[in-house]
Structure formats: structure tokens, C-alpha cells
Amino acid sequence: MGWGMWHIPERELRVLGDFAGKDILELGCGAARWSVELSQRGARMVALDFSATRLAQARAEMDRAGVDFPLVKASAESVPLPPGRFDIVFCDWGAVTFTDPYRTVPEAARLLRPGGLFAFSNSSPFRSLCQNRRTDRMSPRLLYDYYDLHRIEYPGEVNFQLPYGEWIRLFREQSFIVEDLIELRPQPGVRTTYLRPKEVEWARHWPLEVIWRVRKAGATPARKVRRLRSPAAARSR
Ligand SMILES: C[S@@+](CC[C@H](N)C(=O)[O-])C[C@H]1O[C@@H](n2cnc3c(N)ncnc32)[C@H](O)[C@@H]1O
């Protein structure tokens, strides 16, 4: 199991933590390679995708691997499963990239138990601002307005992206605590079929993809924080 374009191993990044025995939902599973391996390693998986073709590929992968778990055909923006069903909701360049975060992040929050983990890889805002939306090619210049980031149309596909502050406000509104923002840097000389060598070099200088790791606030009461009075307020007592 490897994250992102550079396939950085999960055993190295430990994004999902201890997953054996956990209830896990993969959003936008494609051929479900992640879900199959997680299932083989003891996770209780549910894999979701809105494409019947991708789910048929997932079923074939599952049969080959000799594992079985529920496949759900639905959009990640509106998941037909009960609240509090999962310990982990995640995807690697899955549905989060292609869905409106103002819908998908609240869905993830609804589906998770208190203390549950939401983790996903996605392109970085840097990429969204430097990738020419007509040609797909990366530029060393900022081409678009940072504050306009939301729905981005490329030839043949729509992606979603937010400014960093917006992501953080959205997570906080949904009772998520940001645990990590991992910026994935390729090793020198790495190749990928998704990018030209010059673009891999781009990604050596600026983060092209990131992993957000956020946790739904737990059931345990928050630690009592002693409110500090401002020096002026303290003097006026
Ligand atoms: C780039 S593929 C990645 C698949 C998988 N994560 C992998 O690593 O192989 C993105 C997947 O997200 C799915 N997807 C896109 N929009 C979706 C949505 N609104 N709801 C559910 N799945 C969606 C696509 O059908 C596709 O299978």
C-alpha cells in the first residue's frame, strides 16, 4: 500500500495507524486495491465508488485475492450508511479529489465515531494554482487566484480544492482536529506515468500532493483549560 503518485509506503508514513480490527470506509475505491490489502491485514472494510465499472473491477480484485467485504455504489457526498459506523474513513486520490469538500467533509464527520480518523491524499493548492487548466501542464508560476480555489474544471474532469485556511475552518466546523498535513516530496530521480520528468522536478521544489490527517473530536470531555486573564483585566480587579 503506497500513497500518492510516488507510492510512498503506508508502513513508512503510518497515516492510518493501527488498522487491524477497525471498521474502515474507502471513499472512491476504484479497483479497491487498498481495501483488498487492508482486508487481508485484518481491517473490516467497506469500499465505496459511484462507478459501476470500477466496482466490477473491485469485485474481480476481491475474488482474485479471496476476500469479501461490502461494496457500495454511491457518491461520497451522500453515503447511504448510518452515522458513527466507522473508525477510519480514507482515500488515496479517491472521491475527495472529485467531490465538493463542503459536502464530503461533513459526510466523513457523520460516518465516523468520536475519535475516528479521516485521512486522504489530494493535490496541493500549489498544484491547483500552477497547473494550466487547459493543457494540464505544470508551470513554475502561479496562474490563478488563490482565493477563487474551489471547483476547478480541467478538460474531461472536475477537481475540488480550497485555500489552506478554508480547509482548516471546514475541518474545525465539523469537529475535526488537524493532526497532520503531510507534503509528499518525490525522491530524486523518481518517475511516474502521470507526469513528465520536468514536472517531477517541479514537485521536488513545491509540494504537488498532500495527505490531510484529521481526527473527529473524541467522546471524552475536553481537558479543562484555565482561562488566562489579560494583564489589563487582572489589574482592574
Ligand atoms: C483516481 S481514482 C482512484 C481510485 C483508488 N483510490 C486507487 O488508488 O486506485 C478515483 C476514484 O474515485 C471515484 N469517484 C469519483 N467521484 C466520486 C464520487 N462522487 N463518489 C464516489 N466515488 C467517486 C472514481 O470512480 C474513481 O474510481
How do the strands and helices of this protein lay out in sequence?
Elements: E1 2-3, E2 8-9, H1 10-13, E3 23-27, H2 33-40, E4 44-49, H3 52-65, E5 71-73, E6 86-92, H4 95-98, H5 101-111, E7 112-123, H6 125-130, E8 151-154, E9 157-160, H7 164-173, E10 176-184, H8 197-205, E11 209-216, H9 231-235
Parallel strand pairs: 3-4, 3-6, 4-5, 6-7
Antiparallel strand pairs: 1-2, 7-11, 8-9, 10-11
The structure holds S-adenosylmethionine.
CATH topology heading of the domain at 75-218: Rossmann fold
Query: Could you give the distance between the termini?
Result: 60 Å
- Tally of contiguous helical segments: 9
Averaged pLDDT:
92
How would you characterize this protein structure?
This protein has a domain at 75-218: Rossmann fold, CATH 3.40.50.150. Strand 3, helix 2 (33-40) and strand 4 (44-49) form a beta-alpha-beta unit. The protein has 237 residues and is of the alpha/beta class. The protein has helices at 10-13, 33-40, 52-65, 95-98, 101-111, 125-130, 164-173, 197-205, 231-235, and strands at 2-3, 8-9, 23-27, 44-49, 71-73, 86-92, 112-123, 151-154, 157-160, 176-184, 209-216. It is built from nine helices and eleven strands. The radius of gyration is 20 Å and the shape is globular. It is 30% helix and 26% strand. The relative contact order is 0.14. Residues 28-31, 33, 48-51, 54, 75-77, 91-95, 98-99 line the site of S-adenosylmethionine.
Structure keywords:
237 residues, 7-stranded mixed beta sheet, binds S-adenosylmethionine, 9 helices, alpha/beta, Rossmann fold, 26% strand, two-stranded antiparallel sheet, globular
